[in-house]
Amino acid sequence: MTIDVGVLKIERDRLKESLRELENELRRIEAEQKKARQREIQAKRKIEALDTLIDVEQSAAAEG
Question: Which of 28, 50, 52, 62 is the most exposed place for a label (fewest CB within 10 A)?
């Protein structure tokens, strides 16, 4: 039984193309994840800022 080198090369090329597509998809997903993480950080910072303003206002109201 002989192995057809041409068939093996075709299969290899298909796998390489599939791998390239997966790598591109992975990069896209990683970029989306990074954007989502940045939005999360921004939301947490806004919450912290609002908490600080609330604390300052409540302190001022309690004193005055």
Answer: 62
CA distances to 37, 44, 48, 55, 61 from 51, in Å: 21, 10, 5, 6, 15
pLDDT single digits (tens) 6-64: 999 999 999 999 999 999 999 999 999 999 999 999 999 999 999 999 999 999 988 87
Residue showing tokens 């041409």: 6
Q: Three-state SS across 1-64? A: CCCCHHHHHHHHHHHHHHHHHHHHHHHHHHHHHHHHHHHHHHHHHHHHHHHHHHHHHHHHHHHC
For residues 50 and 52, what is the distance between their CA atoms, to the nearest angstrom? 5
C-alpha to C-alpha distance for 58 and 52, rounded to whole angstroms: 10
